[in-house]
Amino acid sequence: MKSNDLAHIYYNTNQQTMKEWRNHPHIGDVKPGYYDYIKLAVTSGIKPPLTGPIAQLFNDIEEQLKNDPLADLLPRAGFHFTFLPLTLPLYTENQRLPGKARRLLDIWHDYDAKNLHLRELRLIALPSQLLLAGIPDDSNVVMASDIM
What we know:
With about 150 residues, the protein is α+β, with helices and mostly antiparallel strands. Helix content is about 35%, strand content about 20%. It starts with a helix and ends with a helix.
């Protein structure tokens, strides 16, 4: 996918979300917590440290949202990148996963601790969240396709 194509998709997604927000100005209750603490999903991803630019992004967003009672900001401790959601949130904490789940861990082990490089980071407005999205380097695309 070309960078221009992705920029167009990002723009259209933002516009669609803004339209939805305009058409339903009173939607959105304050969320009591971060995600569903009861049901969990199997995903692949990383939880990297907050580098200077990402920490500054959090600071800037906190400043913009400080007087908006309906805006919920992801807790810094929850910052993560999800590469591949594998299931819906179906499981409770410590619930035994299906036997095939062990194979997923084995596959992921080969990619654990590898570097991830994203460029052209953008905030994308989705109906219930702002998504930080970026384009992975070619080596990361190859690595992801190997997993599939």
